[in-house]
Amino acid sequence: MLQNKILSLPLVLFFAVAVFFTACDNSGTGSDGSMGTMTVEMTDAPIDSADAVNVFIERVEVNNAENEEEGWIVLNEPQQSYNLLELTNGATEVIGTKELEPGTYNQIRLILSEGGHSVEVGGEVHDMKVPSGPQTGIKLNIDAEIEPDIEYVLLLDFDASRSVVAAGPPGDAVKYLLKPVIKAKEKAITGNIEGVVDPAEAQPVVYAIDDVDATEPDTLASTIADTTSGDFKIIGLEEGSYDVSIDPRNDDYQSETVEDVSVTIGQSNDLGTVELNQQ
């Protein structure tokens, strides 16, 4: 009997050690130590009153701590200027990607430089200032769930039309502020709307409008159709129904609205050719 107890002792110790290491493996990585990946893409809702909107991004960071002043992890340090008006019509730019421990990351922030931001209007370039941008960054709530061996793609829709603000008293030289308006969405749970506007010379701006509440419609995304082909693509739309409004910048043509356009996750709804009538 005593011999059986002595022989069983190593087995008990083995299980005790196994339980100890299992309990200690709470680092957030997968059971095999695998990591997940977060990739951040940027796109833009355009502004038709400017020829360029240049934004200088120093760092892209995410946070997984309850205390938002701690736990910031650098995804990338681009130290680069981006012309937002080149990121329209379905175009995106990767501004950060990094392997991360699995878990929930509740915030992202863009650290913008003190200078280096500009807007070009009518061929003239104006500097833009960012209130408090360099100090605290532009913070967005995301609640991104990072899983082992999975790439999570976050799409940042930088709305240039709402972000560039003319400032200064009337009569003085125009000054501009950059007050970023950005929407963050998980790209995997969005869909797209695309099509062709005929004729392309109408130079239309295409809007996706939330038609759920007709009394207070909300423009959720927009783009400018290609001025040569008339092609357009609006990306990053949540599943649902939208009115697509086509607003020509060429006054010789009339506006057109395509109602009740459905968006399905992971798919692109092709409207085909939308023809505009002359005034």
TrEMBL record:
<feature type="domain" description="DUF4382">
    <location>
        <begin position="36"/>
        <end position="180"/>
    </location>
</feature>
<feature type="signal peptide">
    <location>
        <begin position="1"/>
        <end position="23"/>
    </location>
</feature>
<dbReference type="Pfam" id="PF14321">
    <property type="entry name" value="DUF4382"/>
</dbReference>
<keyword id="KW-0732">Signal</keyword>
<dbReference type="InterPro" id="IPR025491">
    <property type="entry name" value="DUF4382"/>
</dbReference>
<protein>
    <submittedName>
        <fullName>DUF4382 domain-containing protein</fullName>
    </submittedName>
</protein>
